[in-house]
Amino acid sequence: MNAEPDFFRSICPPPGWPLDADRHGALAHENARLRESLARQATRLDETEHKLRHAQAELARANRLSLYGELVASIVHEVAQPVTALDSAARAGLRWLERDEPNVARAREALTHISACANRARTIIESLRARAREDAPGFAVFDLGASLREVADLATHTFGAMKVTLRLDPRVPPLPVRGERVLLQQAILNLLMNGAEAMQDRPEGQRELVLDWELAGDSLRIHVDDRGEGFDPALAERVFEPLFTTKPSGMGMGLAISRSIVQAHQGQLLLAPRPDGGTRATLTLPRTAA
């Protein structure tokens, strides 16, 4: 005999079927319990949605603060370099003028360098302002070879004060690329400064930076080699994170800014340990027809 119909009738009897008081009371109690459980679930759901909205608002605020912090750090980091160069050039100029026989020609060179650094600081500020507004960069074809020589000249007084020697083949040929000249120069200057700072614990005669280039198919590679202590390969990606630094007095912005500039030019920036010690930074860019 099939007991299934009796089971269903005991739960949901058809219309007109007699209900005893116990069954009716049990069903009423169960309904009340379910309503109360659903009410608690709805309350918890409302509370969870409120907490989620609050967390999303806090996350958006934290992201905005992080972006503001990165922008401020970028301004401080990028402007600090030409300001440091200004100070170094001014001190050099004073030394030339304070000699028993003042060297006016060398002092004039220092003043020319000061003017160039001031112009560079103004250009950097304008570029940072454009980045903050998310303006499209103004790309044009230019000679990166000449720009490398300009970067070396700009760094002369700063590296002199740091007792760092920079080697660059003066016969760099024309290297046409498409991009924003000042931004790419700043990326390369950041790499040079990073390498120079990495060698400050080495004896003065061993602080040598090498700025070099090579053609590789449709790409142009710029290398910056230093003789510092190198870096932990496990941090090869973290060193590019904004505000991450392994230096006691570092800001953690130089490499992050350089990579963002290179990526905006459809390029790549990598760090690798050198076999004889130190670090090689390689900046790869697409080549452009002259």
TrEMBL record:
Which Pfam families does the record match to this protein? HATPase_c, HisKA
Q: Which residues form the Histidine kinase domain?
A: 74-289
The record's PROSITE patterns line, in alphabetical order, gives: HIS_KIN
GO MF terms here are: ATP binding; phosphorelay sensor kinase activity
Which segments of the protein form a coiled coil according to its record? 31-65
Keyword vocabulary terms for this entry = ATP-binding, Coiled coil, Kinase, Nucleotide-binding, Phosphoprotein, Transferase, Two-component regulatory system
Quote the EC number. Answer: 2.7.13.3
Class of the enzyme per the UniProt entry, highest EC level? transferase
Q: Which domain of life is it from?
A: Bacteria
Which reaction is the catalytic activity of this chain?
A: ATP + protein L-histidine = ADP + protein N-phospho-L-histidine
Tell me yes or no: is tRNA-binding among this UniProt entry's keywords: no
Q: Enumerate the PANTHER family for this protein.
A: PEROXIDE STRESS-ACTIVATED HISTIDINE KINASE MAK3, SENSOR HISTIDINE KINASE
What name goes with this protein? histidine kinase
Q: Which organism is it from?
A: Cupriavidus agavae
